[in-house]
Every structure is written in C-alpha cells, then in structure tokens.
Amino acid sequence: MEIRTAAAPAMYGLTSGASCRIIPLFHRAVLSLLRFLIIFRTVFFWLLRRRPDPSAPSSPRPRKGGWRRKRGEEEEDARRRRALAEGLDMGGWDRFFRPESFVFSGRRSSLFCRSWLPVAGDVKGILVIIHGLNEHSGRYAYFAKQLTSCNYGVYAMDWIGHGGSDGLHGYVPSLDCVVADTGLFLEKIKLENPGIPCFLFGHSTGGAVVLKAALHPHIKAMLEGVVLTSPALRVKPAHPIVGAVAPLFSLVLPKFQFKGANKRGIPVSRDPAAMLAKYSDPLVYTGPIRVRTGHEILRISSFLIQNLKTVTVPFLVLHGTADRVTDPLASQDLYNVAASSYKDIKLYEGFLHDLLFEPERDEIGADIIDWMERKLQNSCLM
Fold first, then answer.
1. pLDDT tens digits for range 77-130
2. What's residue 52's pLDDT?
3. Domain 77-235+299-381, CATH homologous superfamily name and number
4. In the chain, where the domains are located
5. Which residues form a coiled coil (predicted)?
6. Is 131 a catalytic residue?
C-alpha cells in the first residue's frame, strides 16, 4: 500500500466534530470564558459576604423544579430522537441487507444500536462501527450496503447523547465511558456470533475511542484489527488559555455552550449533496460544542499521542491530505510509531474529513474491504 507524507493543511482549533455543522471553538470563546471567570469570581465573593446569620430563623429551601424540568426535557428529546432513529429511511438499500435496531444497556444509559446482515450466504466477518462526534450510526447505511454485499455483517452503536441514545443531545460527559460501552458492545456481538472474526471501525473522535479501546488487552483479544478514518489524534485548542482552564471549567459548567463560537461549517466533504444531507439531518447535532465534550476530546487526544508506541493492534488508518478538522500528519505519526506488526496507511490526496461521504466513497469503502480480506487471509496462514 502506498505511503505518502501529507502536507499539513490549514488546521482549525478544536471543533464540534466531523459529523455535523462544524463549529470552530474558542475563536471568540476565549473572551467569553474570561468574562465568565470574572463574573464567577465577583458572584462568589458577593455570596461570601452575604452569609446568613446562624441565629436567624431558617427559611424553607426552594424546590428544585427547574432541574427536574430540564431533566424531563432531555428525556423527552431522547425519546423523540429514538423514534426518529427507529424510523430512519434506509434509502431503498434494505433490499441488500437485513437491517435491525435494538437498545443496548451501556454503563450509564440505554444506547441505540443497529445491525445490517447479508440477505444470503455465510458471514465471513463483522465490522463494528463507532461513529464520529455529533453524528449517528444511521449515516453509515451506504457503507453497510458495500460490506454486506461482500458477506460482512455490520453492527453500529450510537454514543451517549447521540442519535437515538439516551442523554442530552451532543453532550458527552466522559469519552472513557464511550470506550467502556464499546468494549461491552463488542462482547455482546462476540457472544451472539461465536467464531466470526470482528473488526472495529472508528471515524474522527470515534477513531480515537476505538484506538484507546484497543489498548485494553481484553478488547484487543476480541479483535481481528481496527480501521480508522480521519482519527482525532492531535487536537489542540485555538488558544493556550483554553487548554489551561478547560479542566476546571468543565467541572464548574460542563454543559455550557460557547454561543460566540464561529458557526461557519468547515467543509468536510467535496460532495455538496453529502454536506446538505448532514446539515439537514435532525439526528446530527449542529449546536455549539459543550465545555465537557470539548475537554474530553482534548484529554483523549493527548493520551493517545503520548501512548502511540504502545499500540499493538493490527490497523489500517486512512486520511485525506486536505482535512482541516483532524491532522493527517498525526495519522502518519501513528503509522510510523505504533508497535503493531501488521499496519497500513492510505493518504488520499486532496480529500477532506468525511472520507466515506466523499465523491469517491465507493473507492474508499473498497480499500477498507480489501484490507479486511487480506487480514483474514493472513490470519488463516498463521
């Protein structure tokens, strides 16, 4: 497989992800953050000065109706999204596979999942899809058609706060929980399909989740290999101040959204129809990124960059050289540094971030299937 060094494209700071209207963070958010810290400090000391007199009669505490109301609204939105996910039109491709949906109990919540299985023939392998930030599993139906036509089964899981799963839309309290949910989901699939080799696929932040999951020995043992498209391996905030205060800020107001963030979408595909489909999809989160979610992306990215040498799972990494959301040079570093004995990289000249939604999506899907075929043949020879 040809290996080329990518020229670094103009990179944006931490974004809301590869799977919705991309919102570059912190261009104006640094000023918003500083204003918030000043206000927070003022209010904090004002409250200290107004401490109540212990000898004064106590008044009843106000009821927390606002919190309950917000929680109810979040649950109602999750039910609405699940109904949309269950009724998602497969575009007529369901004649090529048997689509099913089901709910899986993760560590903290109920997660909406899908499977696509070949209509005929034995299943030679299974690909488990972990989508990117802000998108959902239903977006991969076309890729599932490619896979099932080659007798591969496909399973996919919506993260917490994504697609038809529970949680506030677009909010990820912990990517480590997503990693753990991925391991539990894989265990369930292996139990239901004994003896069938499994591959794990991750896109963008989902690629970071997959790579971290594969560092756990019990998860790696269940895998034939992993496939990463445009993985989020070297993500940096637009300003050093943000990186310094993000841990504290994510604890104080984890769901806070940077309303002043730039709302222009970064192009993630050269196909106008694919861009329109993404931005008009009600299951794709298109709002400003929340503080905790952004901090979690910074955290997992930093961890992986520091631990590239410990990667031993067989992998294929694919990246477009013109990607302005995640860094193709970081994928090159992964290939160069990882200890895996079976590894490949493919860089697509001039391609953008959402590789499976580029005009050449058939070619890219074929490259992934070809790698899986070769990996299975290699395993049979060992």
1. 999 999 999 988 877 666 666 677 788 776 678 999 999 999 888 999 999 999
2. 52
3. Alpha/Beta hydrolase fold, catalytic domain (3.40.50.1820)
4. 77-235+299-381
5. none
6. no
